[in-house]
Structure formats: structure tokens, C-alpha cells
């Protein structure tokens, strides 16, 4: 390299490059967490997208207006990108003061690394904050019997949505069993309508199907054994039956053509349902709000139907069981300054799920995890759906957390990878079981 | 990576450039510092990390060869290498002839060719992520171009079938980079002395024959430069594939760079991810060296007798 004399142009380029590097280095750290007026300045990252982004941002804005001795700076990030960004930031010691998350396995990896504050004592001192929330919502926030996150926002079980208009035209009735589902697949395919919409490229969308099939066929204890790291837990006969049924549905063209290249982030899966290109969709309760936003008058005109996932013939699972997100979870970074931590705790006590936020979630068709929230459903245009979600969540014998969030990131990635292959029918149920047994407890 | 293959600069040329042949070694210091800080140091860090176990959050534990065993024993690595090779080979095969022809065509001095050259340059100005999002929307089997035009030929499950998805990746990559390589070839063709063509015309050689007997051999070094950029560059394709297919369907388009990302940032296995990064660097270096060897000695003159 040194043999080649340097031209003036490349020298100039390099000088410019060095200048740029110096500038980059200068903005690398934002300095200590204080505002210009001397108060503490906490940071808070959360998910973007309607309607949650506005509601989350609104809570911060109202909190900042009050006299709390500091301000919180919010930053909204898109769902799939957020998961990587937050992990990298925490690993690099650049975490925001308030870490938005899903609890469970992800939270456990932060706890194991000593990156988040133990909030057990704080909840002990502030019993009022704890007592107004759903007790079930504390499950994914609790690691080794200690609470590391504040449950917040909404409960979101996975629901079977259907397009009533499409059903009426085809003379079909909502499925009451797995057998009905398979019959509906034949019926809708003969009418050139996709039976189910699915955003398969996101992978966790496919996983929701398996969560229900495992539960309905073998009961909630099948996955519980996996979660607890029991050896060869995937070898349960119920698991094989569920995986086999899954591939039967895929091979019967149960899902929309091209499902494996559709992403959930683009909401294209929901668009397929409300445009009538697909008859049904298994998806989180949070999609109700976005279908209302994007689907024109679809939801308003009462064309959207919903139900809990039906039982499977001969299955052991309780038909009242559901899966999904028992809440969202706010943690405090252990790397934050004491002032920042104090400010974040004030926000948890007074800012999170204040009356305006509760109303915001209800207006968006979601059920906040506040006890007695059902009292505020009465006047809402979405009262019927809200009541369904509230009852489904409250009456569920088991409310299981989404698998990818319950497991450690390593096991979750292996799971999602194998689910994608299963849905592509590039591996058999037996191969799936072998692959997954290999990563149990990791 | 691209610094590995600088165009063969001849010392004789630079001395002609105006007598600045004095000691300029110190001028390399800023470059050397940058290269050390942003090239060598991180690389050493990655090599060190590949012998550890780290989840990206907690403490880093040295663990000897555990990560390497995990990576080398995983059939996923061979698959990722194969996918990377396929993308590399297919995009080279697709891009090189087209870039050569377009470059030669654009080298002409006619006004309309100059206009076309400017238009043709446009894809290069677009970011890979934006390109990927656009193509993803166009190729959507339910809301894309095919259903929109009512064309059943265009309504394929483009990104949902393994081989098709790989083909789409190669196509989009080529669509993006052919303008760049055409530009290189255009420059190369314009450097060829006109006297060679005049002599050939006097001897009665047609356009096709001139292309194969003069243009192509004269472009030898340009082809090597362009190929090196293509081949080594294709090792690092990440953004485009990630947005377009996320490595899917299942793992049909999971190239080495994607595999590294999935392991490191999705599965929190920084050790194995670093091992893959080291493999990437080694493969890249080997390919760059190989291509330079293919070029023969830089002293060989192409203008002998011209």
C-alpha cells in the first residue's frame, strides 16, 4: 500500500473524512442527563404506530407539564426495529431511563445482566399503584419472585377475527371447532376467497396459531413444560398432533397466497381481511384499533366479527384459555442517574395510566389493565368488543404469554426460525420437534 | 472492503503528474489512523469476541472454541455460505455482460447517449432500503403490480418461494448496481486509444469483431476492478435482503451477513455471530486476493505496439 504515492485528491478526501469522524465522535454521547434549567432529564423509548404512539406520547406530555422536577424525552421506534435497537443500546450502556418491553424472557435477560432496577420494594411502598392493576399482568414482570417492571397499557389476547360480510355472502357461520375451520377452508377456497389472512414473514404471526393449537389439543401444560426447560418437552404427543394439524391447514391452502412474504408491520394482513380478500384472521386484539383507523367504515358498519379460538375435537385444553400479551412492561435502567430513576418512578406513579390515558386506550378499542376499566366501556362505540376482550382476559383459565416473549431471546429465535420452516413445509413436525428439543433451556 | 482492491495505479503516471514526487508518506498518516481505528481495532475485537460467550447485555465470558464449534457444526452455516455464493455468482453473471454492453454503448459521444447515461444513473442514487420497500410493494401478490394490472404472469408469489425469492434478490441487486458498473466500463472504454479502432476498421473488422478483439481485451483491468467490487460487495449485502425478504421464506435467502445479524442481535449469541464475521472477512480477503492474481502482473502493458 505504501508503495503507491498518494494523490492530492485522496489526501483531501481523507482530511475531510477525519473531520467528519471528529464531528461524529463529538455527538456520540449526549452528556449527563440534565436539562438546561437544572432539572433531571429522563429518556423513554417506546413503540411507534397508531394508536399507541399518540397515547404513550400524550401521557409523557401531560407528565412533563406538571411540576415533577424534570422532563421525560420520548422517542418512538417501529416494532421490529425496536427489539434490536433497545437490546443494542442496553448492551452498550446507552439504555434510555425507561425501557418499554414485553416482560418475560427478554426482561429476564436484562435482569440476568443487571441492567434493570428491582422495583419490588417500590411497589411495596406504593401499594396503591400495584393494587389498581390486573394481578395477572404482574406475571411476566416477575423474575425470580422479584418485580422488575411496571405493567402498563393494555391486555391483548389473540382473537379470531372474521369478515361478517364475506361470511354472509358465502352462507357460512363462524367455526365452532377445528373441524369447522377445515370445512370453511374448503368452502372459501371454492369461492376464490382466502380462508385466513396471515403476515407470515414476521414469523411471530405464525406462532400465534401454534400457541392455540398446542393449548387446545394438549392443554396449557404442554408449553409450560418447555418454558420450565423440561428435557425433551417438545416430544409430547400433543405437540406432534398440533404441528401435523398445522401443516394440514397450510397444505389445504388455508392461508392467503404469498403469506410468507407479508409482514405484520405493514398491516397488509389486516387489509386483506377488511378488503374481503380473506375471510378470517387470527391476530392480536390491538389490530382492532388499526382496522378501525385504516379500514374505512368496515368496523363502524359492524362487518368485523370476533371470537375466541374454537376447541379442537378431542383436545384436552380448556376452551376459555387464551394467549397473548397480559400487558406491556416499563422498566427502569439500572445505569440511569438517581435523579432520572426518581423521575421515572414519579412517572410510573402519577403519569402512567392516568384517567386520560385510560380513556385514550378505551377510545382506541383496547382494554387497559386497570381494574374496573369495564365501567368506562358503556359510552364507547366499541363497547361490545371491549367487553369481549375484558371477559376473555378475566375469564381465561390460563392467560399464557406469547411464546417468543416468554422464552429467552436465544430459544425464541430458534423457535421462530423453525416455525418459519414449518410453515414453509420445508421441515416435518418430527424435524421441528428434534430441532426445538435441542435448544430447550437455552 | 473496497480499499482492498485499488485500481492498479502506475508509478510512472504519477511522476508525470507535475513533479510532486517528494516524500508524501506522512500524508498517509490520517488514512492509516482511520483504518486502524475503524478497521483494524474493531476487527481484532470481533476476533477476540469469537472466542467468548456473550449475550450482548451482561459480562463477556471467555469460552475458548465453543462459539467456533457451534458455528462450524451448524448446517445453517453451509446453507448460508451456499446462498451467499449463489447471490454472488448469479449477480456477477447477470451484471457483468449487461454492464459491459451498456458501458460500451454509453461510451459513444452522441448527445442521446449522454442523456440516457444521466437517466440511467438514477437507481444508484436510491437507498437500498427504499428500493427494497418499493420492490416489496410492487411484487406483493395481493396488492402489487400483478393484481393491479390484472396480469397473471406478474402475479407470482415472488418473495414467498425459495428460488423465486433468490432470483428477485439477484434482480434487485443488479438493478441497483448495473448503473455503477456501466459507469466504470464507460470510463474504461473511453480510455481505449481511437487509433486501435481506426486500424481495425482499415483491416475490415466489423463492430462485433472490434468489440471482442479490441474493447474486451483492453477492458481486462476494468473487468477485474468491477468484478472485485461486485464479488466482495455481494458478501456484505444486508439491508436490501433484510428489508425485502428478512432472509425468508424460511431461510432461502439467508446469506452470511444476515445469518450473522440473526445470531448476534436476534438470538443474542454474540460469540457465534463474531465467528461468522471472521469467516466473512476471510472469505472476502481470499476472493479479493484471488481476483488480483487473476489480473496478472500490473506491469504488463496493454498498449504494446499501439
Distance N to C terminus of chain B: 35 Å
Task: Tell me the strand order in the biggest sheet of chain B.
Answer: 1-2
Distance between the termini of chain A: 46 Å
Helix-residue proportion of chain B: 55-70%
Give the rounded overall mean pLDDT of chain B. 85
Number of strands of chain A: 14
Runs of chain A in which pLDDT lies below 50 for 5 or more consecutive residues are: 1-37
Q: Determine the strand fraction of chain B and express it as a percent band.
A: under 5%
Write the layout of secondary structure elements.
The complex is a heterodimer of chains A (442) and B (306).
Chain A: H1 8-26, E1 40-47, H2 52-65, E2 70-77, H3 79-91, E3 98-101, H4 104-112, H5 120-125, H6 127-131, E4 142-143, E5 146-147, E6 150-152, E7 154-163, H7 164-170, H8 178-190, E8 194-197, H9 204-218, H10 221-227, H11 237-251, H12 268-274, E9 278-284, H13 287-294, E10 304-307, E11 322-325, E12 328-332, H14 338-351, H15 355-363, E13 367-368, H16 383-395, E14 399-401, H17 403-406, H18 409-423, H19 429-437
Parallel strand pairs in A: 1-2, 1-3, 8-9, 11-14
Antiparallel strand pairs in A: 3-12, 4-5, 6-12, 7-9, 7-10, 7-11, 7-13
Helix pairs in contact in A: 2-15, 9-11, 11-19, 18-19
Chain B: H1 11-16, H2 28-49, E1 52-53, E2 61-62, H3 66-72, H4 75-106, H5 111-120, H6 128-139, H7 145-149, H8 162-191, H9 194-202, H10 207-218, H11 220-235, H12 239-244, H13 256-266, H14 270-294
Antiparallel strand pairs in B: 1-2
Amino acid at each position: 500500500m505504501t508503495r503507491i504515492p498518494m494523490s492530492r485528491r485522496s489526501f483531501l478526501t481523507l482530511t475531510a473524512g477525519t473531520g467528519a469522524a471528529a464531528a461524529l465522535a463529538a455527538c456520540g454521547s449526549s452528556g449527563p442527563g440534565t436539562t438546561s434549567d437544572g432539572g433531571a432529564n429522563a429518556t423513554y423509548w417506546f413503540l411507534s404506530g397508531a394508536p399507541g404512539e399518540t397515547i404513550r406520547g400524550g401521557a409523557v406530555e401531560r407528565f412533563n407539564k406538571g411540576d415533577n422536577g424534570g422532563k421525560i424525552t420520548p422517542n418512538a421506534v417501529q416494532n421490529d426495529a425496536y427489539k434490536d435497537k433497545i437490546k443494542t443500546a442496553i448492551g452498550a450502556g446507552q439504555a434510555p431511563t425507561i425501557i418499554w418491553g414485553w416482560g418475560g424472557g427478554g426482561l429476564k435477560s436484562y435482569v440476568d445482566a443487571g441492567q434493570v432496577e428491582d422495583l419490588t420494594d417500590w411497589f411495596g411502598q406504593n401499594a396503591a399503584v400495584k393494587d389498581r392493576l390486573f394481578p395477572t399482568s404482574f406475571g411476566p414482570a416477575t423474575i425470580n419472585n422479584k418485580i422488575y417492571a411496571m405493567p402498563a397499557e393494555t391486555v391483548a389476547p389473540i382473537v379470531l377475527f372474521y369478515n361478517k360480510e364475506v361470511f354472509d355472502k358465502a352462507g357460512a357461520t363462524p367455526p365452532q371447532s377445528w373441524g369447522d375451520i377445515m370445512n370453511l377452508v374448503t368452502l372459501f377456497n371454492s369461492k376464490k376467497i382466502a380462508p385466513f389472512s396471515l403476515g407470515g414473514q414476521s414469523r411471530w404471526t405464525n406462532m400465534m396459531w401454534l400457541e392455540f393449537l398446542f393449548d387446545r389439543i394438549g392443554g396449557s401444560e404442554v408449553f409450560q413444560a418447555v418454558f420450565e426447560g423440561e428435557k425433551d418437552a417438545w416430544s409430547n404427543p400433543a405437540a406432534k398432533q398440533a404441528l401435523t394439524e398445522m401443516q394440514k391447514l397450510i397444505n389445504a391452502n388455508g392461508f392467503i397466497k404469498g403469506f410468507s412474504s407479508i409482514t405484520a408491520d405493514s398491516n397488509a394482513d389486516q387489509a386483506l381481511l377488511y378488503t374481503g380478500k380473506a375471510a378470517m384472521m387470527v391476530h392480536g386484539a390491538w389490530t382492532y384499533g388499526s382496522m378501525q383507523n385504516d379500514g374505512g367504515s368496515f368496523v363502524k358498519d359492524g362487518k368485523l366479527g370476533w371470537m375466541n379460538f374454537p376447541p379442537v375435537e378431542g383436545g384436552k385444553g380448556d376452551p376459555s384459555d387464551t394467549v397473548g400479551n397480559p400487558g406491556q412492561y416499563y422498566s427502569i435502567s439500572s445505569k440511569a442517574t438517581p435523579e432520572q430513576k426518581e423521575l421515572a418512578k414519579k412517572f410510573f406513579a402519577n403519569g402512567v395510566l392516568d384517567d386520560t390515558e385510560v380513556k385514550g386506550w378505551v377510545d382506541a378499542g383496547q382494554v387497559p389493565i386497570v381494574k374496573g376499566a369495564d365501567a368506562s366501556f358503556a359510552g364507547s362505540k366499541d363497547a361490545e368488543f371491549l367487553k369481549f376482550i375484558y371477559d376473555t382476559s378475566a375469564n381465561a383459565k390460563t392467560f399464557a404469554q406469547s411464546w417468543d416473549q416468554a422464552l429467552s431471546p436465544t430459544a425464541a429465535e430458534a423457535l421462530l426460525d423453525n416455525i418459519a420452516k414449518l410453515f414453509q413445509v420445508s421441515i416435518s413436525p418430527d424435524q421441528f420437534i428434534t430441532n426445538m428439543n435441542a435448544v430447550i433451556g437455552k | 472492503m473496497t480499499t482492498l482492491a485499488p485500481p492498479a495505479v502506475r508509478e510512472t503516471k504519477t511522476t508525470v503528474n507535475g513533479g510532486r514526487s517528494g516524500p508524501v508518506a506522512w500524508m498517509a498518516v490520517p488514512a492509516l489512523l482511520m483504518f486502524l481505528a475503524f478497521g483494524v481495532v474493531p476487527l481484532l475485537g470481533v476476533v477476540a469476541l469469537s472466542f467468548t460467550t456473550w449475550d450482548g447485555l451482561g459480562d463477556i465470558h471467555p469460552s475458548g472454541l465453543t462459539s467456533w464449534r457451534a458455528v462450524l457444526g451448524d448446517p445453517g452455516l453451509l446453507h448460508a455460505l451456499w446462498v451467499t455464493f449463489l447471490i454472488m455468482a448469479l449477480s456477477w453473471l447477470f451484471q457483468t455482460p449487461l454492464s459491459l454492453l451498456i458501458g460500451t454503448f454509453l461510451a459513444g459521444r452522441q448527445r442521446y447517449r449522454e442523456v440516457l447515461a444521466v437517466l440511467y444513473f438514477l437507481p444508484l442514487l436510491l437507498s437500498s432500503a427504499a428500493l427494497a420497500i418499493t420492490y416489496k410493494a410492487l411484487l406483493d401478490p395481493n396488492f402489487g403490480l400483478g393484481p393491479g394490472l390484472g396480469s397473471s404472469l406478474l402475479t407470482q408469489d415472488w418473495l414467498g418461494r425459495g428460488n423465486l425469492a433468490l432470483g428477485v434478490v439477484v434482480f434487485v441487486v443488479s438493478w441497483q448496481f448495473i448503473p455503477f458498473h456501466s459507469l466504470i466500463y464507460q470510463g474504461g472504454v473511453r480510455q481505449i486509444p481511437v487509433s486501435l479502432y481506426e486500424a481495425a476498421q482499415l483491416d475490415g473488422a466489423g463492430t462485433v469483431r472490434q468489440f471482442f478483439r479490441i474493447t474486451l481485451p483492453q477492458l481486462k483491468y476494468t473487468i477485474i476492478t468491477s468484478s472485485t467490487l461486485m464479488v466482495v460487495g455481494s458478501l456484505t449485502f444486508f439491508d436490501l435482503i433484510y428489508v425485502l425478504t428478512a432472509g425468508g421464506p424460511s431461510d432461502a435467502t439467508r446469506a452470511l451477513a444476515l445469518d450473522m445479524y440473526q445470531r448476534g442481535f436476534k438470538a443474542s449469541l454474540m460469540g457465534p455471530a463474531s465467528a461468522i464475521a471472521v469467516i466473512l472477512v476471510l472469505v472476502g480477503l481470499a476472493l479479493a486476493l484471488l481476483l488480483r492474481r487473476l489480473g496478472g502482473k500490473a506491469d504488463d502493458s496493454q498498449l504494446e505496439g499501439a
